């Protein structure tokens, strides 16, 4: 086993063990005693149901990740990468087409293998806890729309990246970075108007008290709000959310219909204020810049490693190729990605506190935000007492109790 194989295998195993430890600690941290903040909001049996939801999801996650681990290692050590390479090369296409087929088939196989898990998750687990609203028809449509989009957008992009490495020599990484950045920005730009409507219906929020209050609030913080939509989240799940997308004129805020149904006007304004807070505090811009810098570093490292023979030997490949190099570099890069994702989650959790603070200061009430957070976690059966290590690895938002306490502490010095 060479150094590349060692690093990749080590990362896969360490990642698996870290998750296992975090999940075990998380299950042990479940407390039967309802936290004080939630007394009166959570009925005892509903609270027990939320813990059962965490348990069921953890067990399911364990089964999926173990299956993934066995499959990945099996495919690798039984020479799957080489066998597929021989098959695809045998068809005798142009190297770039061969690359598209090789990578495409690997991704398709992974998608198809994970499909039963996804079906079980939606139609058994989510159904059992009363969340699922997805019909089999919607599920199938989603699957094919997702597949179509990946082929339509991912295919040409991947072909371009392979072509740069094939024809432009040492500056390939720079071209790849440039093109990927343009595509990323373009997608962000068109997503609200072209992509999201393929999956959901967006209708302008109807005239009335809620709309007026939201527009009054937006004016009070100098936020040029033009597009305020209701999204039919109830098409798939009873869970609720709100989000912000797009740039410039394409900026839009969408509230799930399930959110509007369950919250008071004051709570909805607070939730919206939180989303606007992310924009005003430049979190969205920061994430974008980090994403762009990250892809630059990644392409540069890719250009350094793609011609390393050892990387191909690690996967028993007889003939090195660009496309196989893309896949293997992706696996070699996983430790960097893991560390980066942990760092980004830390930043993201800080951003959530800042957005909460913005919402409280600009709406001049902390109770609406606190009530909204409580209701959201009750309706979504959130785990109220996650283990800190699990939070450290997985949470992009701070646990709800910490958010509530931070909001209330802030109030004391305001
Ligand atoms: Zn947020």
Automatic annotation (TrEMBL):
Residues 27-201 form the CAAX prenyl protease 1 N-terminal domain. It is found in: Endoplasmic reticulum membrane. It holds the Pfam family Peptidase_M48_N. InterPro entries: CAXX_Prtase_1 (IPR027057), Peptidase_M48 (IPR001915), Peptidase_M48_N (IPR032456). The keyword Endoplasmic reticulum applies. The chain crosses the membrane at residues 60-79, 99-125, 146-166, 172-191, 288-306, 326-347. GO terms for molecular function: metal ion binding; metalloendopeptidase activity. Its cofactor is Zn(2+). The keyword Zinc applies. Binds 1 zinc ion per subunit. GO terms for biological process: CAAX-box protein processing. Zn(2+) binds at residues 274, 278, 352. Keywords: Endoplasmic reticulum, Hydrolase, Membrane, Metal-binding, Metalloprotease, Protease, Transmembrane, Transmembrane helix, Zinc. The active site is at residues 275, 356. It is a multi-pass membrane protein. Residues 204-409 form the Peptidase M48 domain. Belongs to the peptidase M48 family. This is Ste24 endopeptidase. It comes from Vecturithrix granuli.
């Amino acid at each position: 086993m060479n150094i590349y194989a060692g690093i990749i295998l080590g990362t896969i195993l360490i990642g698996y063990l870290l998750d296992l430890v975090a999940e075990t600690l998380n299950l042990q941290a479940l407390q039967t005693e309802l936290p004080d903040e939630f007394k009166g909001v959570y009925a005892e049996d509903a609270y027990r149901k939320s813990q059962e939801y965490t348990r069921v999801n953890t067990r399911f996650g364990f089964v999926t990740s173990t299956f993934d681990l066995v499959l990945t290692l099996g495919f690798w050590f039984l020479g799957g990468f080489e066998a597929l390479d021989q098959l695809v090369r045998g068809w005798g296409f142009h190297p770039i087409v061969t690359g598209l087929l090789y990578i495409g088939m690997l991704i398709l196989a992974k998608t198809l293998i994970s499909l039963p898990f996804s079906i079980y998750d939606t139609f058994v687990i989510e159904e059992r806890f009363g969340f699922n609203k997805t019909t089999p028809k919607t599920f199938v449509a989603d699957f094919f729309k997702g597949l179509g989009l990946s082929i339509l957008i991912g295919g040409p992009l991947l072909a371009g990246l392979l072509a740069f490495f094939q024809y432009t020599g040492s500056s390939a990484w720079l071209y790849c970075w440039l093109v990927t950045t343009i595509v990323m920005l373009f997608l962000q730009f068109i997503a609200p108007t072209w992509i999201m409507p393929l999956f959901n219906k967006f209708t302008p929020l109807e005239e009335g008290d809620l709309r007026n209050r939201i527009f009054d609030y937006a004016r009070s913080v100098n936020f040029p709000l033009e597009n305020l939509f209701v999204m039919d989240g109830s098409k798939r799940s009873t869970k609720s959310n709100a989000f912000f997308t797009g740039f410039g004129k394409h900026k839009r805020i969408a509230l799930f219909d399930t959110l509007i149904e369950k919250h008071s006007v004051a709570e909805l304004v607070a939730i919206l204020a939180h989303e606007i807070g992310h924009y005003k505090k430049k979190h969205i811009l920061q994430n974008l810049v980090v994403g762009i810098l990250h892809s630059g570093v990644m392409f540069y490292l890719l250009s350094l490693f793609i011609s390393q023979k050892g990387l191909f030997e690690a996967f028993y490949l007889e003939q090195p190729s660009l496309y196989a190099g893309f896949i293997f570099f992706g696996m070699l890069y996983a430790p960097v990605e893991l560390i980066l994702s942990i760092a980004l989650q830390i930043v993201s959790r800080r951003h959530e506190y800042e957005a909460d603070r913005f919402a409280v200061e600009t709406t001049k009430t902390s109770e609406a935000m606190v009530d909204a957070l409580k209701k959201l976690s009750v309706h979504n059966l959130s785990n109220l007492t996650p283990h800190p290590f699990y939070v450290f690895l997985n949470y992009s938002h701070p646990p709800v109790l910490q958010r509530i306490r931070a909001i209330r502490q802030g109030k004391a010095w305001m």
